[in-house]
Amino acid sequence: MSLFFRPLYEKESSTYTYLLADSDTKEAIIIDAVAETQQRDIGLIEELGLDLKYIIETHVHADHITSSCPLKQKFVNAQIVLGETNPVACADVLIKDGDNLQFGQYDITAMSTPGHTDGCMSFIVGDKVFTGDALLIRSCGRCDFQGGSAEKLFDSISRLFTLPDETYVYPAHDYGGRTVSSIWEEKAFNEMIGGGVDKAEFVRRVNAMELSLPAKIHVAVPANQVCGSKIVTD
Question: How is the beta sheet containing 15-22 ordered, strand by strand?
């Protein structure tokens, strides 16, 4: 038994999509798939002969449109998975903190990590954690829309920091070409929360971010609330 694992990249929004599968049973999951690269992902899944079981979203994204519904239309037995606090009706499975899903012989454990949005979830598979926009490499997600809260994000990242130091960190985005980090690296070197930064200082740093809104937010959020089944432009 071995785990098949492929990080995939969408350059416009600097989004990472993750494809994982049990090499023996061929059951697979995909995390944070993007509309612009859905044909690439479909082609790879078909080429490898995988049985897509779960289409997982770490949260309702604001910077790109998900391909969850198009993937489900292609792989009809797959189920769309989101955290239970997300404002969506299109999910087949709404999960809460501590819930487990399974593909082949592998478990996926959900960890509630709100802060970037109120519905953010991270997912643990073995020695890997997929952190969405909660914990980024040397940074963290913004907290100024979709029910975001810097205080909640501090608590969420503090929970992530209780994972074993050797746990690999795979975020939903990186804007500098980096692909992976680890819990011990982020505890030591993360520019927002590393090195023992306390909650008050973290909140100050997050609230001092001066970021423009994502270019696609007014299209992406309503589209992702229906799992990418339609694009709302008005």
Answer: 3-10, 15-22, 27-31, 51-56, 79-83, 93-95
Contact yes or no for 78/55 (Cβ under 8 A)? yes
C-beta separation of 182 from 168 below 8 A: yes
Of 176, 131, 166, 163, whose CA–CA distance to 31 is shortest?
131
Domain definitions of the chain by residue range: 3-209
Cα angle 195, 200, 204; round to 5: 95
What is the per-residue pLDDT for 233?
Answer: 42
pLDDT tens sequence across 32-60: 999 999 999 999 999 999 999 999 999 99
Q: Which two tokens stand for residue 103?
A: 């593909």
The third-level CATH classification (topology) of the domain covering 3-209 is Metallo-beta-lactamase; Chain A (3.60.15)
Cα–Cα dist 52/124, whole Å: 18
Among residues 6, 16, 20, 7, the alpha carbon closest in space to that of 126 is found at 20
